[in-house]
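Notes to self after the Tuesday call (sharing in case useful).
The group wants a holo model before anyone commits to mutagenesis around the pocket. I volunteered. Ligand is adenosine-5'-triphosphate. Logging inputs and output together so the record is complete.
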Amino acid sequence: MAKRGDVLRNNLFMLRYVFRIVPLYAVVHLIMQALFGLFDVMWGVLLIKLVVDAVTVHHSVVPVLLAAGGYLIYGATIQTAAGYVYEMFAPIQLQKLNKAMQTELYGKAIRMDYARYNDPEYYNQFVWAASQTEGKAADVLDQTAELLKSTITVAGIAGTLLVLNPLGVAVVIIGLAARFGITILSNKAEFKSELELKPLERKKNYTSRVFYLPDYAKELRTSRIAAPLMDDYRQANAAMQQVVRKYAPRLILLRILNGFVFRTLLMDGIYFAITAYQVIVQHSITYGTFAAVTNGVWTLGWSLNNLIDTVTKFQKNNLYIRQLRSFLNDKPQMEEPLQPCEMPRSPKEIRLSNVSFTYGNNDAPTLRGIDMCIKPKEKIAIVGYNGAGKSTLIKLLLRLYDASDGDIRYDGRSIRDYRSEDYRGQFGVAFQDFQLFAASLAENVWMDRVGDEDTERQNVIIEALRKADFAGRLSSLNQGLKTELTREFSDKGQIFSGGEAQKIAIARAFAKPCSVLILDEPSSALDPISEYNLNRAMLEAAEDKTVIFISHRLSTTRLADRIYMMERGEIIESGSHEELMQLDGSYAKLFRLQAGHYLSA
Ligand SMILES: Nc1ncnc2c1ncn2[C@@H]1O[C@H](COP(=O)(O)OP(=O)(O)OP(=O)(O)O)[C@@H](O)[C@H]1O
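Result:
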């Protein structure tokens, strides 16, 4: 169970946040619930006593009429106010609250170290916090309001009962104290069982995702993977049933104690009998008091239940808010310079000296002793077998990771001396595992808003698409640059083939005003003619830029000024195509192998 101090601190953190963003709504909500609490006290105890005593003791109708009138006016006023507050004011204010929270989370997600995605614990924490955020801050305010309301009801009714019938109150206090303790024990057992169920639920959710999401649909239909997945699902289900069985006896006993022994038997039965004896036999209390205390005890019972329920919810929030706070407070390990250097605007030399890199959880380094000097406007190809470390090298060049050892310099300065945003701004990149976004074609290329009037920007995009060999396909699209991509928001959203999508990703790099183009496997999904066009366009588009591209097709790499051949994290050969062929090493072997393959094909 969480520490009490933590529960308070974390819930207060969230409450302060709510008060900062929507202070008026927070205050109005609390006042409304306090008024509802008072309403319960007045109606649940005082009014009943007044009305019954008026009929049985005073034989007067005036107090009854006054009470009924007051009740109606009070009820009508707060219900009308509640209608306005909760149907109109609250939805708008809650949207404002969610927007503020999500905006902060998205901003934090972008600033988060890229390396964090390799840390499953941290990544889960982020995804969990982000997915729970919607409505969570509002929940804390709702629970605070409920706490206020229940406290007013409990305190008001308990105080009134103490005055009206102190003997009966003793029974009530014993009953309520016992039920409070039992509820805490039940919550503990439920919490433990939830903790054990959580990993099993995650397993079940994974299976559901696999069976529903289109990403897995092809493999499911063309392999036997469905059977073991279903088997995992069944096993997780069986394990969940075991957990339920383990905690059930304790929970059943506690429920009987709570619901029957201390509620029905003690509070409803014995308490009722005592007060009935007082009114009928002893005549020590009036019928009005009898009706008021009996009803008061019932109201007290459910108000206390609400109170306990609310305390439990505060405890549950704690876990979420703690994760959220640690995510928000997390400081990026990749430091930004205090006095960043000015970023040069034209292509400059990129120099890597003795660069090594090990991924967080790996034992062995992925890159070792990399030395490279890329002159401004040079065209560089990086080649090598799968897993040689080519994409990792690109990620280091983009400063998505910092090198574990060695030094990367741009224009003679360590890349850590530039603001990472400015530095990355120098690169136009087509990633190997690019993503298309649910936005227009123009925005997918420009990667920012593109207005209808912005013809200059549209021309840049059209030109970039032409260079990426997409002009023919563009002219076939009715909506042209406005074509919506993906079916996320519209049934008419365009779905492109793998090669077409890759051309859009390449056009992004061409469209960006930058000094260095990085293309990771730019032609992997392209047909030979598109590949030929792309290579020509690449040279034409990048005349004034440095180009670094990774390719498995060595016919493409011939165009490069210099080729780096990588193997197991090291550069084993470098030079022009002719030099490497003369060297007759790994590159030449690979080249001949591919040429032979093409010849025999
Ligand atoms: N996020 C990661 N965490 C841990 N190890 C990783 C990660 N990404 C890559 N690796 C490991 O680093 C090695 C190099 O991967 P990298 O993607 O750089 O190779 P590559 O040369 O680009 O391969 P390919 O030609 O298949 O794209 C691989 O053995 C891979 O398992």
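Two things stood out.
The mean pLDDT is 87.
Residues 118, 359, 362, 366, 384, 386-392 surround adenosine-5'-triphosphate (CB under 6 Å).
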